[in-house]
Amino acid sequence: MKITKPKDNQLLIEDDVLKKFELKVKSNTGLNSSGYNEVYQGLILAYRLPDMDASKQIFYGSPISIMTLFCSCLESIVANNLISEDNIDEMVEAVKENAKRRKGGKKSDRGRNEK
């Protein structure tokens, strides 16, 4: 995989695996014609390639959009047997512990956006 930034406002992702990726959505949820259409605008992009010290992540959108996208991603990952529900439980516990450590042992306020 190759990720470059041709312009300040562009990312270019190149890989043969993307040949199978279709931009057209296959499921018809009715969201497009609902009153929530404008509210649910978001993007989650995360990657890590060899020779990177850590992953790179972008989150764009309102908290509800990000939560909805994230839940949809997790559901797809479980449905496609990439990880199990038990793995999700373990991941959530690990995230909570790491978040506590980063904040110096304080418990975080659920739902708050802190930077």
Describe the structure.
A hairpin with an 8-residue loop joins strand 3 and strand 4. Residues 110-115 have low confidence and may be disordered. Helices cover 30% and strands 16% of the residues. It has two helices and four strands. The protein is globular and about 45 Å long. With 115 residues, it is an alpha+beta fold. Strands 1-2 form a two-stranded antiparallel sheet. A two-stranded antiparallel ribbon has the order 3-4. The two termini are 30 Å apart.
Q: How would you sum up the major sheet?
A: 2 strands, antiparallel
Number of strands: 4
Q: Any idea what the radius of gyration is?
A: 17 Å
Uncertain segments of ≥5 residues (pLDDT<50)?
A: 110-115
Q: What strand order characterises the main sheet?
A: 1-2
Beta content = 15-25%
Query: In angstroms, what separates the terminal alpha carbons?
Result: 30 Å
Query: What count of helical segments does DSSP give?
Result: 2
The helix fraction, in percent, is 25-40%
SSE order in H/E notation?
Answer: EEEEHH
Overall pLDDT metric: 88
Structural class: alpha+beta
Morphology: globular
